[in-house]
Design goal:
With 256 residues, this protein is mostly helical. Among the domains are: 58 residues, no CATH class; 67 residues; 50 residues, no CATH class. The protein is built from seven helices and seven strands. The strands form three sheets. Strands 2-4-3 form a three-stranded antiparallel sheet, with no helix packed on it. The protein has a two-stranded antiparallel ribbon with strand order 1-5. Strands 6-7 form a two-stranded antiparallel ribbon. The termini are far apart.
Length: 256
C-alpha cells in the first residue's frame, strides 16, 4: 500500500506557495518557502513534492493470518466420534510427561470400546471412566519403568500400611534406577562414570594374586598337600586338621 499526500493547487491561481507535503508529518505544506517550521507538527522540515519517493506502509492484507489454536496436533479436525474422544482425553493427558502418547492411548481405547459395545448410554460417563483407568495404568507403568516395581509387588498388609501412613512418596521397597553413565566423584576426587566403579567378579585382583603366589612359594610341603586334598574334596586326618588350624591361627595373628 502506497500513501502520498499532494497539496492542492490554490484556487486563486497563485502558485507562489511551495506545493507538496511536510517531510515530518506528511500533511499539506502551507509555507511559501520549501524549508521551515511546519505549522502542523511544529518541527523543522522541508516540502516534499509528488516527485519525492513516497512512503511505503505495510498493508495489513499482506500479514500472515493467525492460525486457530489447535494445540498443535490437528485433532480438532477429526470427525465424530473421534473428536469427542479427543475432547474427553485431552484433560487427562495434559498433566503427564508423555502427553501425546497418553492422548493416543486414551483415544484408541475409547475407539475400541465404542466398537465392541454399541449399547452404551448417551452421556459421556463411560468415556471418562475408561480415560481415568487408562491414566492410572499409565502411572503404574511409568512408576515401574522408573523405579523397578509397583504396589502390586507388595502384600495387602503392606499396601494397607502405605495407604494409612501415605508412604507412596517414600516406598519401603523402592528400587531407584541409575544410569551407568552417571558422573560420580571417586575416592581420589576424580570425576568418572558409575559403571567404571562397579567391581567385576571375573576380574583378577593382582595384589591378592601376588600375595597368594608369594605365600605358596614359601609354604611348607605338608600345608600344600593339605590344600590339594581340600581342593580334591578328600577328607583330612585329625593331625592334618590340627596342623591346618595352627597355620590359620598364626596367619590371623599376623593380620592383626
Amino acid at each position: 500500500m502506497v500513501t502520498m499526500i499532494t497539496a492542492p493547487a490554490p484556487q486563486n491561481g497563485d502558485n507562489s506557495n511551495a506545493q507538496g507535503h511536510c517531510s515530518r508529518c506528511g500533511k499539506i505544506w502551507t509555507l511559501m518557502q520549501r524549508q521551515g517550521v511546519c505549522r502542523w507538527c511544529g518541527k523543522l522540515s522541508h516540502c516534499q513534492t509528488s516527485t519525492t519517493k513516497p512512503r511505503h506502509v505495510k498493508s495489513s492484507s499482506r500479514r500472515k493470518p493467525k492460525q486457530a489454536d489447535s494445540n498443535g496436533n490437528g485433532y480438532h479436525e477429526l470427525p465424530e466420534p473421534y473428536l469427542t474422544f479427543y475432547n474427553v482425553a485431552l484433560p487427562f493427558a495434559n498433566s503427564v510427561p508423555d502427553r501425546e502418547d497418553l492422548l493416543h492411548t486414551i483415544i484408541a481405547n475409547l475407539a475400541d470400546a465404542n466398537r465392541s459395545n454399541g449399547h452404551k448410554p448417551d452421556n459421556l460417563s463411560w468415556m471418562y471412566r475408561i480415560a481415568s483407568f487408562t491414566k492410572a495404568q499409565y502411572w503404574r507403568e511409568h512408576y515401574k519403568r522408573t523405579n523397578g516395581l509397583t504396589c502390586g509387588n507388595c502384600s495387602k498388609a503392606q499396601r494397607r500400611k502405605c495407604k494409612e501412613d501415605w508412604l507412596y512418596g517414600d516406598c519401603p521397597k523402592l528400587v531407584k534406577v541409575e544410569s551407568l553413565h552417571k558422573p560420580i566423584i571417586d575416592s581420589q576426587g576424580n570425576l568418572t562414570e558409575l559403571g567404571e566403579l562397579i567391581a567385576d567378579d571375573k576380574a583378577l585382583d593382582i595384589d591378592a594374586w601376588l600375595d597368594a603366589r608369594t605365600f605358596l612359594l614359601g609354604a611348607p610341603e605338608r600345608l600344600l598337600s593339605i590344600g590339594e586334598k581340600l581342593q580334591d574334596g578328600e577328607a583330612l586326618t585329625h593331625g592334618e586338621r590340627t596342623y591346618l588350624w595352627k597355620w590359620r591361627k598364626q596367619e590371623q595373628k599376623n593380620l592383626v
